[in-house]
Amino acid sequence: MSKLDGIELEIMWSNLISIVSEQARALQRIAFSPIVREAGDLATALFDAEARMVAQAVTGTPGHINSLAAAAGNLVGIIPPEELRPGDILITNDPWMSAGHFFDITLLTPIFRKDKLIGYCGSTIHHTDIGGYGVGAGARDIHEEGLWIPPLKLYERGEPNETLHDIIRHNVRTPNAIFGDLAAQVSSGKMGGERLNAMCDRYELDDIEELAHEVMSRAEEATRADIRKLPAGTYHGETSFDVPGGDVITLKTALTIDTELGEILVDFAGSSGPSPHGINVVPAYTHAYSTFTLRSILNPDLPNNAGSLAPIKVTAPQECIVNAQYPSPVNARHVVGMYVPFPILKALAQIVPDKVLAEGSGAVWTIQIQGRNKDNKPFTSSMFNYSGGMGARADKDGLSATCYPTGVSAVPVEVLEASIPIEFTRKELAHGTGGSGRFKGGDGQYIGFRMRSGNEWLLNAIPSRLASGAEGLFGAGGGEPGQFLINGEDSSEAKKLAMQADDLVLMRTPGGGGSGVA
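Predicted structure:
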């Protein structure tokens, strides 16, 4: 029986949320990369001594947050608690242990109280460059995609691991930016540990074991209770979409609701097989967007932690695009991973039609540019994303130029123009591209740009839904597909493109599907 009463629990829970949210704010303030600072492509979380996620920040993207939940346990599984000392900081970007591609680096900071390990602060952010191919789908295997950092200590007893620092510095194009962002993660984790110890001082706690157990067990019980309210059975959903190079990917889900156990199993059997391009999705990323979708429908007000995630199981065959096996290329895994919610939503539409939304534009259109300035110094753009229309909601129109499910913001064009030699020629809504219906799908947007360095440059662009748009729901109209033009000509290639100095790029992102008959 817990010694914490409801008021104490609420106060301490508010403290935990404040700690992880302050971590996220500090990370955004300090980070060098615009995609972290401006777009919020990050996750911060607090873990107990067993590396179970207790609380997450109120900002962040599901692909990072729920993957970070798995990454902490994976890191501690390789470097166990008995090998940790105050001042240690763990690091990895192993796609199968963390967020699915090399660009997402996870740091885990052990928190000690009087030499006792009481928990961990963790963060995952998208870094500007990690060497190799870049954020694109053209690599042929994982080893062409960049620097692979296995689970290691970035800092040991407060001192930097100089060997690892040198390896990173010599394998990336923009080392100052990488180490600036790593320093932001280090500072964020250190601050989180200090705030947690200050909270323990206030409430005279030796550790957070009882508090963490109470928070996670209540979240799990409430999630299982919500699942038991659903009709038992297996429900199916399916979505198809085209990807760079013109291939069509199909994702199928069988959603099994077990009301006795209070569990949901999501099975991706029957989905497309592995791709030769870098759009394969590791299980942790598939799990992240699957659990996000279901948690959003079941009870979005519940804490997102190890407890509320426990009743949701996700499985996929080995020969499946959402269960990437080594050495599959994965750098553009979001191109498929961000479509994971749609077949799940179609299955849920059969039992909770008043809670689901229609298909949206899908994955953000990711752009990365490499080149040299007029003074011949190399630059690599922080990946910038542009979204299409969101699918219509159950009782409202879909939002325009808003990406579901990632939730990241677009980096403002002014910030990009100030950080790299780029000039935006167009940025406006593509009115009428959303699907018709009782509730309309959100519209896509136009984005045009050219480079102003005067030099040739390289473009990694990963558009999807160029051939067919998002489907409408309950008899509504579908959204319009997108368009990607280079000098007025259609382009959809799954590889890095060599561009001339004066080439002009124009994108029109897809619209979202409508919902219901008007």
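Summary: Residues 175-202 form the longest helix (28 residues).
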